[in-house]
Amino acid sequence: MFRSRFDIKSQPGFGFITLFTFFALYLPIGALVVYSFNDAESLSQWGGFSGRWFVAAWQNSAVQDAAIRSLIIALWAASLATVAALMAALATTRTAPYRGQTLKYAMINQPLMVPEIVTAVALLIVFSRIKVWTGYSGLGYLVLAHTAFCIPFAYLPIRARLESMDLTLERAAADLYASRWQTFRHVTLPLLRPAVIAGFMLAFVISLDDVVITEFVKSGGQDTLPTYMLGQLRRETTPEINAIATVFLALSTVLVVIFFFINRKKQ
Amino acid sequence: MTESRTTAAHGGAIGLHGIKKWFGNFQAVDNVTLDIRPNEFFTLLGPSGCGKTTLLRMIAGFEMPTEGQVLLDGSDISGLLPNQRPVNTVFQNYALFPHLTVAENIGFGLKMLGRPKAEITSVVNDMLKLVHLDGRGHNPVTQLSGGQQQRVALARALAPRPKVLLLDEPLSALDLKLRKSMQIELKRLQLETGITFVFVTHDQEEALTMSDRIAVMSAGTVRQVGSPWDIYDRPAERFVADFIGETNFLSADVVSVADNRARVRLSSGAEISASFPADVTPNGSVTVVVRPEHARAGAPTGTSALRGVVHDIVYLGTDTHVHVRLDDGTAFMVRQQNARSGHCGFSKGDTVGIDFSDDVAQILRD
Amino acid sequence: MNGAEQVAIEARKQDIRSRWLLSAPALVIIFVAAIGPLFVMLLYSFMVKGDYGDVKPWEFSLDGWTSVFFQRDIFDDTLGLADAHISIIWRSIQLSFFTTILTLILGFPTAYFIATRPPHTREIWVFLVTIPFWTNLLIRTFAMQQVIRNEGLLNNALIWLGIIKSPLQIIYTDTANLLGMTYVYLPLMVLPLYASIEKLDFRLVEAGYDLYATRFQVLRKIVIPLVKPGIIAGSILVFIPSLGAYVIPRVLGGGKNMMLGNLIEMQFGAGRNWPLGAAMSITLMIIVMVALIVYVRNASRGGSGHV
């Protein structure tokens, strides 16, 4: 009789807990998606398979407006945040420590350390006053607030890539007569591209997903898709909201898949 | 090709004058003065941490000397940035740009210099031929073997026709066979292009094989500069003798000095003739070195320079090392070439006499 | 000092200057839209509340701060403890603590299991954790709501199985808050844990078995001490957002089971007491900071004995 090989890595029960975890992670999302195809008026019963709530959501002008607004804000915020984060990452990596560097790190990561609700009410206080003073109450406030909390997310992958990047490549460029700008343009930036794209996508999704800060900063009639949904949840909900959520879900899944492949190619 | 040979026929001369380099409290280079001649293959040889790479980086412009000057053909380049120096480097791990093709890598320097496209293309093609990579121009560099990457790195550094080519342990990542063939290749490229090569290595054999002259470094200082023959056969001091090859140290007393030779008496009482470094006048008790292959072991006779007992015999294929304990207790090794197959003729415990020719012993500076 | 040295020092100075310029946009944006407002809020917490929200500018008072923990009796004007506030703050801390524990109990075995798969399958598992992580928090909260509602999936399933007769009241309780937060923040625990377990050198585990350790001892004495940084990172990543949770208690907890986040929001809405809201926000920040410091200190002290 031979005993089967002793697997040093296994621990009893861990496989079972893992299966439970994944079941628990996916069951609610799965149910949400399934019910978006529910023909019934309410979520309480199953009225057969139908795509009508997707059509209803598509034709709902409030949803359309909110979706477009969400995309505009996310595109602006993610673009600005990525540029700012790229510059900041170049400024804070690959150097002997200098005075103020720690302060920079702390500032850049600050939005991650403070609970969102705190930042949200602080912004409410400041922006409500500025809105009165300037009379301007457009999307700029939302874009600015989103850019600020997107910066640490865009910064993360870019900084990581820069720190693992071989300094000798840039040295080689300098040795081959490239000026600082040429080195950046022809060597650093191309090598950073996957990280910059990853940072942009991360920032984009973070902006798209935000509820709390948007809820407190927005002026009247500036609902984004998440705040619109939050407002709807107060009422008796129909599967229309599931349909919106399902589309949203599909969008973030596509982004994860792209993100995943970019990261894989890098390795 | 002809054109490139004629323009590059004059490699630059590098002058290092009183170079000191501190990193915080650590002194990496201590007052180095060296003159590297045009068109020569010059090697900085030493153990890791001896400052040889720092010296190379100061010639390239990646480090600034704390004190001293770096001269190129007589003019001070200490204050110039790397991209302002007509000097190119072959990096230890090649540092090829992974996002560019072979041809784009080779043409990078010329592109940065703003040369016309046609010129870049023709130089790149010449370079590809020079390093035997014809037709591989469009390959991504990441798909090349180690040896091929090495050739691309060389071509890339040679393409802008620098006055001096710096090589930072470029062969250390290759396996033994490839390393041997690249040594010959490098020497050929240096002769063909006429560019001054400054080569950094910790591998003595590499240094001896390729160099016109070698500077042996230790702890931030240059210990000896000379031809491979000088360095190997006429080491000036203990560190050099010990670092390069294997050697035997014998204590001796100076009997007389005449011309450039000295008579010294060994502990066995035998007197031999020895050479000595030019800047030394030997007297009193000195240390003499003899290379193991310059000594012969045999049956002891009355005229043997040394006598001892065999305590170990190590067979190495090409050679046999006979380890002898001399009468005064010193360890001594004799290297015998295995000219014939079979046993070397000694056994452990045998008493042997050791002889060597008169011109092989060298007195060390204290 | 010679010319080259001068050049080096000058180059370094210029490098630092350009580094400040490069980081300026990010720093300015974060200052204007994140850090600066916190200081303004601190100022607001010391002002007199306005009659219709906002504050009376430059009229100072400590009322905002005292009302965080105390309330003035309507009849005799004495100060008593503000029980409602204190119980909500305490509930927030408790719920966040239990959420961290629950995510750790589920997350550690999961991360360990994933990290010990062959590299190729490992990627797929990580990918599967990443999808919910990237899914909108509101959507996940909403999905949870649909599961635990009275007519939701869970109750229907239990009734269908005959385990219960009438629906369990889960939604609008603290249990709902706890379940929701555990569900939503679980990926935040799994991912950093996975990252540190993946780096674990399993030769050390082999050495442990070689030296007669049991499976549990190997886990307890080798694996857990070595992946402590991951446990700390995961716990912080779960604890901080839990403490400031706003959406989850609003959707799942209902009006009675508020957390600190909802209490703060109330002061800016119906409560019309901005100084109090500001003081509470700063209190929340202080709790987070204290928790962070205590946790990191404890963890590093505990860890030093092993590593």
UniProtKB/TrEMBL annotation, chain B:
Q: Which SMART domains match?
A: AAA (SM00382)
Domain of life (superkingdom): Bacteria
Cited InterPro entries: AAA+_ATPase (IPR003593), ABC_SmlMolc_Importer (IPR050093), ABC_transporter-like_ATP-bd (IPR003439), ABC_transporter-like_CS (IPR017871), Mo/tungstate-bd_C_term_dom (IPR008995), NA-bd_OB-fold (IPR012340), P-loop_NTPase (IPR027417), PotA-like (IPR005893)
CDD domains, per this entry? ABC_PotA_N
Example GO CC term: the record gives:
ATP-binding cassette (ABC) transporter complex
- Write out the entry's keywords from A to Z: ATP-binding, Cell membrane, Membrane, Nucleotide-binding, Plasmid, Translocase, Transport
Instruction: State any single GO MF term.
Output: ABC-type putrescine transporter activity
The catalytic activity, as recorded, is: ATP + H2O + polyamine-[polyamine-binding protein]Side 1 = ADP + phosphate + polyamineSide 2 + [polyamine-binding protein]Side 1
The catalytic activity of this protein is classed by the Enzyme Commission as: 7.6.2.11
| Entry similarity comment | Belongs to the ABC transporter superfamily. Spermidine/putrescine importer (TC 3.A.1.11.1) family.
In Swiss-Prot or TrEMBL terms, this protein is called: Spermidine/putrescine import ATP-binding protein PotA
Write down the species: Shinella sumterensis
